[in-house]
Model the fold of this input.
Amino acid sequence: MATLLIRGGRVIDPAQGIDGVNDVLVRDGLVVAVGPEGSQAIGRADETIDAAGLVVCPGLVDMHVHLREPGREEDETIETGTRAALAGGFTSVACIPNTEPPIDTQSTVEFIHQKASRADNCNVFVVGCVSRDREGRELADIGHFIP
Done:
């Protein structure tokens, strides 16, 4: 079992009502204990990170991300965009359908899921177009977007 101790960071977890300087013990990728800084109850770990002056919180979610792929890979790819998101603390993103071609078919949604899976950086939720080609004339087959 790999353990990680994050020491002395400002731990913010609204779901648990936590906002203060604490230590966090992580075992096999799961938080198993949160306690006051320097608490002996937290225990020892294989690795320790000094988080003084840093914020420790659950992964953030960005509900409006322009990943540009497909069609504008010279600006950004799904791999580079999700890597940047993860580096910024975002564990999930929702990609907006203003790509070229727009995200208005099941095959485009599958393409994005496949690229995101290969990149393996963060969760990617695909936002599909309501209308074909984003033109507002004809509904896209949105019922088929669910993987």
Summary: The longest strand covers residues 3-13. The helical segments are 78-87, 106-119. The radius of gyration is 20 Å. Strands lie at 3-13, 18-27, 30-36, 47-50, 55-56, 60-65, 90-95, 123-126.
